[in-house]
Amino acid sequence: MKKKLVIGWFTFTCSEDNTILFVELFNQYYFEWKDKIDFKHCKILKSKNEFGNFDVAFVEGAISTKREEDKLLEIRDNAKKLVAVGACACTGLPSGQRNSFNEETLAVIEPFLKQFRLRKKIVPLSDLVKVDDSLPGCPMVPNQFVSLLGRYFQEFKVK
Amino acid sequence: MMHSFDITIDELSKIEGHASLELKVQKGEVKDVKLRISENRRFFELGVRGKKYNAVPQLLSRICGTCSAAHLMCSIESIERALGIKPSEQTEILRDLTLNGVNIRDHAMHLFLFVLPDLFGKDSVLEFDDKGYEHELLQKALEIKRVGNLLSTEVAGRAVHPPFPTVGHFLHVPSKDKAKSIISELKKIRESAIEFVHIFYEKDFRFEMPDIDFMAISSKGYSYMGRGICTHSDGYCIPDNDYNRFFKERVVPYSQSTGFSFQGKPYMVGALARMNINGTNLHSETRKSMTEDNAFPSYNIYHNNLAQAIEIVHCIDSSIELLERCEFKQENLRKFEAKECEGVGAVEAPRGTLFHHVKIDKDEIVTYSNLVIPTAQNQVIIEKAIGKMVEQRISEDKGKKAIEKEIETLIRAFDPCMSCATHFLKVKWSEK
């Protein structure tokens, strides 16, 4: 059976702009990628998703809850490579804008932080796990994503 | 047989963002429906306070990847209304073109990647046949999406978080040659877009809610930009800058989002609402090319999909006309005087009426921001629709598995956007 690149696509706290851009890249690359990629976990495309043994996990968004933190650690344990996709995953911003709110504004949001068990500080992925590659930008630069994918095709011997 | 069961769907798929659902049925009666929008809050309304007015639209665009241009337009309009800036006719046309591009691209993503598999009894487009009818259909779908993306890119600089639109004008305008090439691409996808209207008309599901109300911006030419008035399905009109006297926030304690009601009643926004209210204002070429628009007004929730398919054709026809009619020239920002002021912007985002309300001080600093989001407005009606549909299917003796599948399909028909719905600071509004 032909080897495919097994990927997972995950999103945390963000605008999901990179997921949208990923889907927009299908306009050009869908039929090529379908042949080379096993979309093992990709909630935007399908409901029957499987978790584990990923060659590459693409992760969009910053981490704003303990639940997200636990999920990120689980993804890291199950992926040979982990890519931080977009500004929120790479830098924590703009989703983490509340990190720099003044005391008066923080007092306004305090009840929500407690009610929904949000972390005190929103953090980028690299604060919690090893990140193998980063695709910065809000959103990422499409050609950088395509080029990185090409590199992974080579690395994982996908033809 | 009296049905009693619980359904929990932890992660709804093929929608924008994160949401889950809990449903309780006892003796054939739905006792509880909870749609939990679990996307985490990012507090944009507080984040823009203290920033200069012209930095705000691009920041608010970051609320949502797929609706970014709608947020951008709405924020710009709210600031212009506050500062008393009247955009040129050319700028208004470029904004119409930008929103046409968004609607083609965004509706195409929803219809072709999320909904089409339901119509063909498949989980995903990934399961579509590698050749033959399904393959050709998918090729056409991706081509429509590509051209929508192209229109946004050429007019606004990018499909996601477009950089050209700004307060007062556009930083860059399309050349005559670019306009010609976009027209040619739009003409090539038109026939396929009409074919999809036929498919959604013939193949989509049926679930009616005759007691539902609708809300959309009224516009002469089915434009997505606010022209000052919103209309209710009863024909009741309100000025859009008076929105907070009419819409009442409903706290949804288990959700990161907030629900809304209009004069005490839940209502629906989006393509179905627009077609029910403004369908006769579609582009004349669009109306000439199909009969499916006669399905409106409609109370079939699944007709939100058909309405989106028709809107794609309208956006193509409207864009061809605008691009053929206009020759764009670089314009300078119109002068204005800084002052303490406030303004409300209203646009039809792909998923429905979007409001941005802004207050600015004499130093051009934003002191207040409030946003009313389409998916948050629809949250109450989505839960009601699920409850009603489940009871209806139980009475038809449908099994739990089939019901669970249709719940996801029905939620998808509303085309919810969870990223948009959860940026909120709760505000207390008084009902009129």
Number of domains of chain B: 2
Radius of gyration of chain B: 21 Å
Number of self-contained structural domains of chain A: 1
Mean pLDDT of chain A: 94
Unreliable spans of chain B: 423-432
CATH class of the largest domain in chain B: Mainly Alpha
Give the N-terminus to C-terminus distance of chain A in angstroms. Answer: 12 Å
**What percent strand of chain B?**
15-25%
Written account of the structure:
The complex is a heterodimer of chains A (159) and B (432). Chain A is α/β, with parallel strands linked by helices and 159 residues long. Chain A has helices at residues 17-36, 66-77, 87-91, 103-115, 142-155; strands at 5-11, 37-42, 54-60, 63-65, 79-85, 118-123, 133-135. Chain A has a 5-stranded parallel sheet with strand order 2-1-3-5-7, with helices on both faces. In chain A, helix 1 (17-36) links the parallel strand 1 (5-11) and strand 2 (37-42). Chain B has 432 residues and is an alpha+beta fold. Helix content of chain B is 44%, strand content 17%. Chain B is built from 13 helices and 14 strands. In chain B, the strands form 5 sheets. Chain B has a 4-stranded mixed sheet with strand order 8-7-6-11. Chain B has a 3-stranded antiparallel sheet with strand order 1-2-3, covered by helices on one side. The radius of gyration of chain B is 21 Å and the shape is globular. The relative contact order of chain B is 0.20. Residues 423-432 of chain B have low confidence and may be disordered. The A-B interface holds A 11-21, 23-24, 26-28, 30, 34, 39, 43-49, 64-65, 68, 94-95, 97-98, 101, 105, 108-109, 112, 116, 118, 138-139 and B 11, 13-14, 16-18, 39-44, 46-47, 49, 59, 62-66, 68, 105, 109, 113, 123-126, 138, 142-143, 145-146, 149, 159-161, 256, 408, 419, 425.
Summarize the structure.
The complex is a heterodimer of chains A (159) and B (432). Chain A is α/β, with parallel strands linked by helices and 159 residues long.
